[in-house]
């Protein structure tokens, strides 16, 4: 199996890909769209991309590409612990006062916003497509008094020094990564304690109470929703998709019953995937070694 992931090497997405498919051939892609396009065009069998972070919420680029751009089913989900560290080039100072520029993924910067505001208030912020891209930027530009926000795997990969560890503002920080693929190769995760089915629902324009009807279609069937989120349809202000995660694998009666019922009410329904979910720590403890290769 060929696995594409948001790279370059040392990204949290690579950690997710390695945790689930340690022996597969991996190809890194510089952006979420390029990674998903590679799966859509069958350059890789599966694409691994970040979907949601515990502090910052959904990775909108991923969600929008799943909704608007590609019919790429979600086939698995793995949740990875996120530890952000301030990495500097070994030839440069780790004296924070002298750091003039900080590089990282927007979500990583946001996860460390309070630290940066407090310790690096005058630093210029530069957004990169991934945390590991930021670490590579620091490695390639030793002359700069700059730092990257990234994990310790990236520190080892690019020979950087952690000037400060665990700079994320909130503990218990995790990110959900999804495996998307339309190739019918073997399932990615065989055993899993939980499953999710993710649907995108559009409401009829002529009845505002429809969302209550949609939620009722799940509740009287005792189907637990773990998430509901509105995302713009991009057709005009106030037009939304509702992205719903149901804590249940697709079956023959209940979920098809919900779909038939809400469609009969005039809603649009699209299933983004029905898939096994695991914590990376449940799969293999090498993941912990990966993230803190001390
Ligand atoms: O940038 C990375 O390392 C990624 O894999 C994307 C990401 C960024 C911030 C938190 C979680 C995942």
From TrEMBL:
Reactions mediated catalytically: prephenate + H(+) = 3-phenylpyruvate + CO2 + H2O
Magnesium listed as a keyword: no
Keyword Transmembrane helix attached: no
Pathway annotation: Amino-acid biosynthesis; L-phenylalanine biosynthesis; phenylpyruvate from prephenate: step 1/1
Gene3D superfamilies: 3.30.70.260, Periplasmic binding protein-like II
UniProt xrefs under CDD domains: ACT_CM-PDT, PBP2_Sa-PDT_like
Pfam family, one: PDT
A molecular function GO annotation: prephenate dehydratase activity
EC number: 4.2.1.51
Source domain of life: Bacteria
Coiled coil start-end: none
SUPFAM superfamilies: ACT-like, Periplasmic binding protein-like II
Residues annotated as domain ACT: 199-276
Domain called Prephenate dehydratase: residue spans: 2-182
Keyword entries, A-Z: Amino-acid biosynthesis, Aromatic amino acid biosynthesis, Lyase, Phenylalanine biosynthesis
Record protein name field: Prephenate dehydratase
